[in-house]
Design a protein that fits this description.
- The structure is a single chain.
- With 230 residues, the chain is an alpha+beta fold.
- The chain contains nine helices and four strands.
- The protein has a four-stranded mixed sheet with strand order 2-1-3-4.
- The two termini are 25 Å apart.
- 33% of the residues are buried.
């Protein structure tokens, strides 16, 4: 693991651009299963949807207007589905709650409770996609605990062990670490790939070939002090 290229991936579960970018993250994992390790980090862009959408979009239709905007963005993509009532019915109040759930599962991976196979998506990665799909495609309120538990149970994840990580505060500490990393790397949005120990940041709707070229350059030239030609 120490010889692998380390990539940190910052996103918010409620970000439409991260939802659409999942296909590129999956391709990266398939193309470089033995050369690259990806650490998912979660940032609080939608920590308060009332502030970000209700207030931020107040003059553009609020939640209804934002939902229309999201559908318009997704209409250009063929690989994902967005529910017609997105953000207009039982909208999540915050992304913090499902982020804490994901950090709990990551902690279970770290301590060996949940095994991780380098050639398969990790349990936390599969859960992140299940949560994103539940929200964007099915319009389920993933901030609600009962929705989170339903999804976790459907994936045969150990909910009692997850609860322990949440109850003891370790999930909160892990999420705080993600926010500290966000500040350290000056990550401003979702999704953002951070490479080369923070020297390279690929933010937003970046094409896969650009991501691949940066990865291949770093694998070919591991001298982190040198600038990439990409």
């Amino acid at each position: 693991m120490s010889n692998k290229l380390h990539v940190e991936y910052f996103s918010d579960l409620l970000c439409i651009w991260a939802y659409g970018a999942q296909i590129r993250l999956d391709q990266l994992h398939r193309d470089f299963p033995d050369e690259v390790t990806i650490t998912p980090r979660y940032i609080p862009l939608f920590a308060s949807t009332d502030e970000r959408i209700g207030q931020g979009w107040r003059d553009r239709g609020g939640f209804t207007g934002f939902g229309a905007h999201i559908r318009d963005v997704a209409s250009e993509w063929e690989h994902v589905e967005v529910h017609p009532d997105i953000w207009s019915e039982d909208a999540p109040a915050s992304s913090t709650s499902p982020h804490l759930l994901l950090k709990a599962v990551q902690l279970l991976e770290d301590d060996g409770t949940l095994p991780v196979n380098a050639h398969d998506a990790s349990p936390s990665a599969r859960l992140a996609w299940a949560l994103r799909k539940a929200f964007f495609a099915e319009n389920r309120n993933i901030a609600r605990r009962e929705v989170q538990l339903s999804i976790a149970e459907s994936m045969d994840l150990p909910t009692a062990a997850i609860d322990e990580k949440l109850d003891c505060g370790r999930s909160h500490a892990a999420l705080h670490d993600d926010m500290e990393a966000q500040q350290r790397y000056q990550v401003t949005g979702s999704p953002t790939l951070v490479l080369n120990e923070g020297r390279q940041r690929l933010y937003g709707n970046v094409g896969y070939r650009i991501i691949e070229a940066n990865i291949r350059e770093l694998l070919h030239n591991p001298q982190s002090g040198e600038a990439s030609w990409c």
